[in-house]
Amino acid sequence: MIEHIQKEAHIMPDWTIIDLGGATSINYERSRLLAERAYRKADADDRKVISGMISDCEYTIEWLNTGRRPGNKRGIERRAGYEREVLLDPIRMQAFASDSKAGSPANLTDDQRFQLQYALDQLSERERECYVMAHGECIPHSEIAKMLGISDGTVSEYVQRAQRKISETVEQTLFFV
User: How far is residue 148's CA from residue 151's CA, in Å, rounded to a whole number?
Assistant: First the structure.
């Protein structure tokens, strides 16, 4: 296949605009070969730009062939559960916690308000405080730590623990559909 692409790349006249079609590995390989051909004929200034194009093509080819970002050691499928899950809709959470972030709490239906309150009731007082400030009011963990007089790591631990509890509540409760 590569030989066919190389032959095709050598047949093309200079500065021809070619529609290679969709974003497939083969089409990016064709683009890379055309760019390499142009690189060999280019002057010093153009070579910098063209080498960037070649590098971008190689990056994209690797991403398309492996199905993950080049250089990543862990793909998304290997991330911890709390890193992959969106537990509650952030806009709903913000509307529940604060009028100023996402509109009025009046935007929530009674069922949505009940679901949020039920999920938050499963948390301890400190977990609820940290979780609502972090996700509802969008306050950075460092600011929460200063406000509550605890360390950043403790805030992160409370938020992660709250996320686990909310995740379990959502999975085990029928009205979260």
Answer: 9
